[in-house]
């Protein structure tokens, strides 16, 4: 009988190996063989646990989304102000884990491939909607709903753009910190622009 926890460990090995393979070869050039070589496991395990390469790629991307969610949960407190929650969202997107070489290259490959793959496009849309929703929730605490929704879309675009700039620029610590600071400053400017309207009617 398999050892307790072996399936979870094997699945995680294959997900980590997917990041490594995509980092080296890109998403399209990564194959069952290259992924299993990185994991040091037999190719049959991908079919056993994920069905095929596509299933493994999707599971790996869902893992990235889950890690981003976990960061937000772990760093958000009930007594935080809306501004502080917005800062945590920025920090989550610029966390060192999400900007390390293998994960950032996987994100980039994911975005590019989602233009041609409907399943990946759905995951990309989930990721985008989640970011906008999280931002909008906090913005609505300090401005009218219509302004909050607009601000959320604008802030999300700024975060994505600065993240891409940091990654393509080599994502040194200085570049990451600068991008994170710019995103926070932009969010502060949106709050200043629309004014702090606590207890806005209709929220």
From TrEMBL:
InterPro entries: BetI_C, DNA-bd_HTH_TetR-type_CS, Homeodomain-like_sf, HTH-type_Tx_Regulator, HTH_TetR, Tet_transcr_reg_TetR-rel_C_sf, Tscrpt_rep_BetI
Ranges where the HTH tetR-type domain occurs: 8-68
Domain of life per record: Bacteria
Coiled-coil regions, chain positions: none
Functional pathway: Amine and polyamine biosynthesis; betaine biosynthesis via choline pathway [regulation]
DNA-binding region as annotated in the record: 31-50
Iron in keyword set: no
UniProt entry keywords in alphabetical sequence: DNA-binding, Repressor, Transcription, Transcription regulation
Pfam families to which the protein is assigned, alphabetical: TetR_C_6, TetR_N
Keyword rRNA processing included in the entry's annotation: no
Job of this protein: Repressor involved in the biosynthesis of the osmoprotectant glycine betaine. It represses transcription of the choline transporter BetT and the genes of BetAB involved in the synthesis of glycine betaine.
Protein name: HTH-type transcriptional regulator BetI
Taxonomic source organism: Vibrio ulleungensis
Upper taxonomic lineage: Bacteria, Pseudomonadati, Pseudomonadota, Gammaproteobacteria, Vibrionales
Gene this chain is encoded by: betI
